Amino acid sequence: MSLQKIDFCFSAWLVLALLSTHFAAVCEGSAGGQQHRASSPDVLGSCLERSRTLLANVTNALGQKDNYEGFNCSQILLSLDITNGMTVKACEPDTEENTGCSGHRKTPFNKSACLGNISIDLWDYKNELLSYKHANLEGTLIKRVDELLEDSFTLTPAPQTATLENNFENRERLCKVLKAFRVRIVTISRVLSYIKLSRMS
After folding, report:
1. 6: left (phi over 0), alpha (psi -120 to 50) or beta
2. Residue 47: what pLDDT?
């Protein structure tokens, strides 16, 4: 199942959830011994806001033509997911059976496993983006990733990747990576909304 299709399933569920539930949650849990912060009921709202800011920054980075010399990034249809691919399935919300979402998980939603996968994804993308020194992403995009990690998750970072040469192949790779990251951030925002909605009092 494609990320876009699962994102559609998230959207459909959230429309129904918004009609029947109210906000009451914090960004908390643990997975693999890693803790996810939850200092107050306002933390999850901050997580959501930071994820939306990060989405805007990724969209802006995709529009920086200087980073894509030799081609038009907007015309690249393919994206490059550099993660282990587990987050979408781990974070699929609980839904009624036979909803049409063919990738429906057979086990109950596990918030800790979901948040653990999100934190790993954020670190994976951060380390990947740090390797594109020519793109000057550290002062804006990577800073926003750090803010979301600091606000929501704690995880020992993986070693930073080596700097990639500024050539056509790597500029094209950056375009594809950012397109995949944008899709993942949309998913992350919807997951955080789901967690917030599911914590009914």
Report:
1. alpha
2. 83
